[in-house]
Amino acid sequence: MKKYDVVIIGGGPAGLGLAYPLKSNGQKVAVVEENLWGGTCPNRGCDPKKVLLSAVEAKRKGEYLVEKGIQDTPEINWDDLMRFEKTFTAPVSSGSKQGLVNAGIDVLDGHAEFESANILSVGSDKIESDRFVVATGQRPGRLNINGDELLQTSTDFLNMDHLPKSLVFVGGGYIAFEFAAIAVAAGAEVHLIHHNDRPLKGFPKDGVDELINQLKKQGVQFHFNVNINKIVKDNSGIELSDGQVFDLKVSKGFVTAGRRPNDDTLNLNQIGVETDQHGIEVNDHLQTTVENIYAMGDVVSRKQPKLTPVSGFEAQYLSHELLKGGDGITYPAIPTLVYGMPKLAQVGLSVEEAQKQANKYDINKLDMTGWFSYKRTNEPVSKAEVVIEKESNRIVGAFVISSEADTVINYLTMIINAKATMSEVQSQIFAYPTEASDLEYFG
After folding, report:
1. What are phi and psi of 399, to 5 degrees?
2. Which of 98, 191, 319, 413 has the smallest number of CB atoms closer than 10 Å to its CB?
3. pTM confidence score
4. How far apart are CA 40 and CA 47, in angstroms?
């Protein structure tokens, strides 16, 4: 039986981000992966999605300027786009695995289960380690209704060689909105079903309503307050119904009703590692309820958003923790995004929370649609809501909707984490005219 200093279960961004610094500091390290090396983000998540969105951005920006210098709107060829996407995803798994091998890190392919706090089985093999780190991520959730198996997942959508004539997304989260924006831009008939009338609850309602309005104009059909309870196959695709008045026939359907942590097949509870519905419970040192077992990334139950950069941040922290020990992890302000055209983005204290504490915070609502940065591209909507702490005059939270929201929110994230006041922001000289030079007007 091989023995290691640290065994990492999961070869995604978190696992890889931890393995290399441990190895370079003299630790004997192994990484176990039962699916694609490199993890969800580069294989079947944020990276391939962003490749598809590049075509959507080009199409929409061209549309905005038709008869204002652009003659014809670009059209998306799905088959060509998917071939381009695969040039990014195809090398990821083998390259990620080979990188570990080249660094002298042991790699094990197969399903892992704990036999005890110090022994892990991987297929028919058993390995021993002083410490384990679980970084197994999440997987698409399911609906648990009659015919649920007829719905495909986000993985299938991002690996779809040909675009169906019509499709539906069941669920109203980030993935549903992003995929709807992609599919409708590529020419499909697109439906989105949500069980209530308040999707994307983490974002301000007026901003979400604006996004819905823009997607409706692009052709997305929304069906709110619909609880699907039956899905059947027919000659042309599938039929979804609520058993009452709602009935929809489409070529393909995708479940986009959240994701669930991959913590239920590792035998964790039997060895004393506690979990809840959101994942593995950890303390501020990312340590589970079993002293020598740690967890990081999307499999962890925490209030911070489950994003690839957060996983990388935790890997960086845990490399110091396992090598030297130290203080508990402290997270900076973390931006979250819904990609599309337009994009939704927010960071820091939410507008909703600021509204509850009107004595402490001001909220500046900005309609930037007429600002030069957006008017020059004839963008249909560009708005922001900025939360400013009255006492310090610091930006402590922000929400943005525009085609450049991802860029703007990163500027605001740096400002918030630097605890900069508005006067300090206004004392900077930025390249003009840019989204950065607009920041002086946010206070």
Report:
1. -130, 140
2. 98
3. 0.95
4. 9
